[in-house]
Design a protein that fits this description.
Blueprint: E1 12-14, E2 17-21, E3 26-32, H1 37-47, E4 57-60, E5 63-69, E6 72-77, H2 82-92, E7 98-102, E8 107-114, H3 117-122, E9 137-142, E10 145-153, E11 156-162, H4 166-176
Antiparallel strand pairs: 1-2, 2-8, 3-6, 3-7, 4-5, 5-6, 8-11, 9-10, 10-11
Length: 187
């Protein structure tokens, strides 16, 4: 069996922000009734965090949990722990109507660090970033690529997309991050 590698094997690019392939990350799609107590307990047990509100991503020592839709969460953990986390969720939710799938190898994750993260994201998303900040999560598009993004702090954000378009996403982020790619807003 071959060793797993991230979509761009650690590539990075410098500009007003640093954009980099964030490496391998465990990602689990969890679908079900998010208002159900068993789901909340299973999430708490898996990543040590309470359920996120709509448009929120919570981060902790054991991982993170993001609100993807009214019936869907994305759980983040160490890459090597993803299969075990799915098994743990399946045990905790036995008898419930749910779906838990390890999607780690089907996604690409990018890290953006710097003081101009919102300027970069605003170039390609139709989502309003007015008031967008740490802990907030959006599922949208970036440069016509289906993506989700969130801020961990004012100087650190992440973008996740399908692995099949990961190289294109990195190229888009790199181009939009070029100091010459000035954002011109018209009134």
């Amino acid at each position: 069996m071959s060793d797993a590698v991230s979509v761009l094997n650690g590539a990075s690019s410098e500009g007003p922000n640093k954009v980099s392939d964030a490496g391998l990350k465990g990602m689990i799609t969890l679908k079900g009734d998010l208002a159900a107590e068993p789901i909340a307990k299973a999430v708490k047990s898996a990543v040590g965090l309470a359920m996120p509100a709509p448009g929120e991503c919570k981060t902790g020592a054991k991982g993170a949990v993001a609100w993807m839709a009214k019936d869907e969460l994305m759980l983040f953990c160490d890459y090597e722990d993803a299969d075990n986390m799915v098994e743990k969720l399946e045990k905790a939710l036995k008898g419930q109507h749910f779906l838990a799938v390890n999607v780690s190898d089907a996604r690409a994750l990018f890290k953006i660090e710097g003081d101009h993260i919102l300027d970069l994201l605003a170039k390609g998303t139709p989502t309003s970033l007015h008031g967008f900040g740490p802990g907030q999560f959006r599922r949208s598009r970036i440069g016509q690529i289906a993506a989700a993004f969130w801020m961990v702090s004012d100087a650190e954000a992440y973008v996740v997309c399908f692995r099949s378009v990961g190289a294109h996403m990195f190229a888009w982020l790199e181009t939009a991050n070029d100091p010459e790619a000035v954002l011109h807003l018209h009134s």
